[in-house]
């Protein structure tokens, strides 16, 4: 059913997401994006990402930008991974 959230296999992660309008929407947790979906591709430190990344994080938690240009907008959230706790302090 379109728009119904559920678990989806994406890239190397099992994610909480919804599918609507022909697109998979990965909904973020925590961060500063208030649950907005990831936007792919997004640019971070002059590199384009087409999936959640751990780049720039010492704790290796997967995150994504919720706008195409993170460096400009700085809107982000953690990518939910089934079976793993995101122990972020943000």
Automatic annotation (TrEMBL):
Protein family according to the UniProt entry: Belongs to the seminal plasma protein family.
Major location category of this protein: secreted
Gene Ontology CC entries for this record: extracellular region
Organism superkingdom: Eukaryota
Keyword line: Disulfide bond, Repeat, Secreted, Signal
Pfam families given in the database record: fn2 (PF00040)
Disulphide bonds in the chain: 38-64, 52-79
Protein name: Fibronectin type-II domain-containing protein
Annotated Fibronectin type-II domain residues: 33-81
PANTHER family the record matches: FIBRONECTIN TYPE-II DOMAIN-CONTAINING PROTEIN, SEMINAL PLASMA PROTEIN
Subcellular location: Secreted
Signal peptide per UniProt: 1-25
């Amino acid at each position: 059913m379109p728009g119904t959230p559920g678990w989806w296999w994406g890239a190397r992660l099992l994610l909480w997401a919804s599918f609507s309008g022909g697109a998979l929407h990965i909904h973020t947790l925590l961060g500063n994006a208030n649950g907005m979906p990831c936007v792919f591709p997004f640019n971070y430190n002059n590199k384009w990402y087409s999936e959640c990344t751990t780049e720039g994080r010492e704790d290796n938690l997967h995150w994504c930008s919720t706008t195409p240009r993170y460096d400009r907008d700085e809107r982000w959230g953690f990518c939910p991974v089934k079976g793993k706790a995101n122990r972020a302090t943000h």
